[in-house]
Every structure is written in C-alpha cells, then in structure tokens.
Specification:
It contains 1 helix and 21 strands. By secondary structure, the protein is mostly beta strands. The N terminus is likely disordered.
Length: about 425
Amino acid sequence: MMQPGHIRGALCALLATLLPVTGAAQIAGGAPGGNGFKVGDGRLHPFLDLETRIDSGVGYFLDPSTPDPNDVSDNLSGELVLRLRPGVRMEVPSPRMALNASAYLEYVRYTGLLTEQSTYASHLEGAADVTATFNPNAPVGLIVSDQLLRTDQTRNVALGAGVLSLFNELRASVPIKPGGGAFEVTPEASWGVEFFSPVGRSIPIGCIEEVCDPLRVDNFDSSTLRAGLDGRWRFLPKTALVLDTDLDYRSYFQGSSPDALLLRVSAGLAGLVSSKISATAKLGWGHNFGSSGGNTLIAQLDGTYLFSPTMTFKAGYYRTLDPVAAYGLYRDDRLFAEARTLFGGKLTLRGLVSVDLLGFYDVADPRSDTMLGLDLGADYQFKPWLLGAVGYLLSTRSSSLEGSGLNYTRNEGYLRLSLVY
C-alpha cells in the first residue's frame, strides 16, 4: 500500500504535469470563426487572471530566522497578496463522447508589505479537472470525471485558518433514462483523498486543541469512498420526484480521528412553482455506522425567483451531515440568500450572505461553531476577451473551543483582470 507521503508526491506530480501538457495544445494555432484554438471538433481557450488582494487573515507567522514550533502568534496576519493564474479550458462536443476540461496554475505571492515574515510562505496553488460524457443522448450513458485542487480554502470545517489543502477526487456515474427520460436513475461512485499542510510556521495563541494547530494538520489526511444512487421521476412536465442516497466511508492515514461509515437518504420534490419561481424540498435521514456513531434529520428547502430576465434571487436552508476529521461527524444548519443582476449586458452585480451553525459529534468534548459569510462583487465585460472584477469577502468564525485559530474575523478585498481567448 502506498504511504501518505508517496500519494501526496504523486498528486503533486500529476498537478505539475497536467497543466503544462494541457497548455501545450494551444500552440497549434488559431482557428477562424471564433475564439480559442481549434482542437479536433472542439476549441481550446487559454486565459490569464491577474489579481491583487488585501487579506486580513492569510496565516500565522513568526520570524523565519528563529523558528520555534512552540512559539505562538497573537492572531491571523494580514497581507497584500498578488495572484497570477494562467490556465486553459477545452470543450469538445460530441454525440458519442463529449469532453470538458480545464486547468490552471496559480502563483500566490505574499508581498511582505503588511507582515514581513509572510514572504517565505508564498506558494503555488492550482486545479485541473476533466469530464468525459459517453453517449450523452442515449438511454444509458457514462460520465467519468477527475478533479485535482490545491488551495488555501479547505473544505474541512473542523480546521482553523492558515491551512493548505491538496484534494483529488475520481468520480464515475451511469445515467439511465429509459422511455424518453421521464424517469432517470443514476448509480455513481467516487474516491477522494485530501492532504493538508500549514501556510505559516506558528501556532495561534490560546490553541490547545489539535484542530486549531496548523503545524499538526497532516494528522487529518484522509480518504473517502462513496457509493450512491439517485433517482428522478418527472410526473409533471416541470416537476419531479427526487430520491438521493449515498454511503460514505471516511478513513485517515494517520492520527486518531475516528473513521465514519455514513448513510444518507433523502426524498422530495423539485421543479417550477410558477413561471418565475422554482423550488426544491427534500427531507431525509443520516446515520453513521462507524465507531463514533451519530444520526440526525437532513433537509433541503430552497427557491429561486426570476424577478426579470436579468435579475434573480435565491434563498434557502440546508441541514447536512458529513464526515469530518477529529470528531467523526458534523452537522451543518445553513441559511443563505443571494442575488444576481445584469445591467446592459456587461455589468454583473452579485451578493451572498450565509450563516452556518456547526455541531460536531463528540460526546467527550462537545463543540459548536458559528460561521458568518458575506460575498459582494461586480464583474464588467470590457471586451469579449477582457473581464474585470472587484469584490469584498467577510468571514467570521466563533467556536466553543478556545484559541484564535478557531475564533477570528477575516476581511478580503480584491481587484482582478481576466484575459480570455
């Protein structure tokens, strides 16, 4: 069996090789009749993002000339961050095998203007994903996809800030649509692995728990196997009865986190309520057969209102149950509202506000967190090949556990230019 270090090295090598290979295809030359380079029946679109970001919470830093793993930082450090993101996107339509792929490599440069010690933590991020759809219009199809991602925005809600995540997931599904597509059933399976590393080299002040210490996050490296079966029956032209089932097996390569074997089943309705309102309502149950136990009601209720052809509103509530490091399971009660509008075909305004109430399943040491999020932004299409964006993000987290690593407020403001061919 491969050791965690070997798997991590293999994923990094895959990320390093996927991006240059994909990008090499763009030298084939331009093609008349549209943007992008002609690649078989599809087109390859190179792009470049240039971003400047003021971030009040990039990580925990001390003077690298005198590193001491027992030192602590008062709080998250702020920094002016420069991001350079070259990438490519490819689309190949086909009635037999449709292919969609994208990849980018991102250099994150901490300038040291606000926190001098942060410069050593400059790093590479990136992503690559590919989806192949076989027989998309046939009664029986096959969808195979893979996603590789390295980012400082981890999906592990048990951990604090200042963490880098390397994630890869391979997924396969078989959509079965007999009799014209009114009824559809989709068995699916996936395997995902995630590895963590710290952004800085310091321990947050007040941190006595492993989950808030960036220097010990590799104890939460994990593997997740998932099998699922989804069903949809359109008993009315625009309304369907939906059924979602999945079984997750989460294990950890090292450390003492309890494994989880989580079954979730939910059913409900999805479709149009009126010509302007669509909604989804589902109710179900989640149960963990792993050693840590735990079960709860799960639910989804959300709706979208089409105020006009260029303005939409969406709001909803989700109650989910998922595996998590250190505790085995966590429950998330999420409320959100978002709006999006387009002016003159070029200016897009958007806003999202959310509240997450997290409950971690640990009888010996109960923990609950509250996360507040705000995302405001505007995009403007200067040219078909030039897009500008400006935005502000606020994230506030408070936890029943002590330590600045789990209790913080993070402000981010950014300005971005995107060039796309």
